[in-house]
Amino acid sequence: MCANSDIIVVTKSTVPVGTNNQMKEWIQEKLQGRHMYHMIHMVSNREFLHEGSGIHDFFHGDRIVIGAETEEIAQKVERLYSKLLIETFVTDIRSAEMIKYASNAFLATKISFINEISNICEKVDVAFIVTDWECIRTYPLERYVQLMGEPILFDGRNCYTGKDVEKHRMDYYSVGRKSIRNRKVSTVY
After folding, report:
1. Would you state the pLDDT for residue 2?
2. Are 173 and 109 in contact (CB under 8 A)?
3. Highest mean pLDDT of the ranges 122-126, 140-144, 179-183
4. What is the pTM for the complete model shown?
5. Distance (Å, rounded) from C-alpha 7 to C-alpha 59?
6. What is the largest CA-CA distance in the chain?
7. SS3 state at 9
8. pLDDT at residue 175 tops 60
9. CA dist list (Å): 99 to 18, 93, 105, 106, 108
10. φ, ψ at 127 (rounded to 5°)
11. Which uninterrupted H or E stretch holds 40?
12. Domain boundaries along the sequence of the chain
């Protein structure tokens, strides 16, 4: 190691709470074994990236979390992000480690919830459209009827027109437009 001043170590991965403290002790022990007595400053800087879109997420993220031992160290790391114009949260290291776990747990809960909603929708012939992907916008309405029998379609992106839906005799609910009810919907328990 060729450092001639204090060392800032930034961890990016999701790690158990307390890992940065353990890493600091380990690094200091190794340095002292080499008769190097630099001050080690740990920073927890979790990434919030999605698979397949890491570069875009880095430059256009919704938040930056910096957990540092001191405000001075946090500001040094924060300056690295200054051109990105992304909201930055500065906290202590343990809180930053926990924020990533809480974020992941919340995401997992949302996924579990929507999977359960999907299971219910499949059982009662309901489809939700909450994307405007080309493959969804151009999906033939007659396929919903073939696959679902008596479909109820909730269109969060207004992919279809009223004329298209009326022709296929399905119940259709969209955002900001009149709903189309072709049959009475019974209560499902």
Report:
1. 65
2. no
3. 140-144
4. 0.64
5. 26
6. 81
7. strand
8. yes
9. 13, 10, 10, 10, 14
10. -125, 135
11. strand 40-44
12. 7-112, 124-174
What type of residue is 11? T
- State whether the Cα torsion 61-94-98-9 is positive or negative: positive
Per-residue pLDDT, 132: 72
Q: Could you tell me which of 78, 77, 86 has the C-alpha nearest to residue 59?
A: 86
Q: Taking the CA atoms of the chain, what radius of gyration do you get in angstroms?
A: 26
pLDDT of residue 130: 77
Question: Which tokens go with 148?
Answer: 């679902």
The Cα–Cα gap between 128 and 121 comes to 8
Band (18; pLDDT cuts 50, 70, 90): very high
What does the alpha-carbon distance between residue 127 and residue 109 come to, in Å, rounded to a whole number? 21
Other residues' Cβ atoms within 10 Å of the Cβ of residue 10? 16
DSSP letter for each residue of 49-108: --TT-HHHHHHT-S-EEEEESSHHHHHHHHHHTGGG---EEEE-HHHHHHHHHHHHHHHH
What single-letter amino acid sits at 60?
A: H
In eight-state DSSP terms, residue 180 is B
Q: Domain 7-112 class?
A: alpha beta
Q: Which two tokens stand for residue 39?
A: 């001050």
For residue 56 the two structure tokens come to: 């875009």
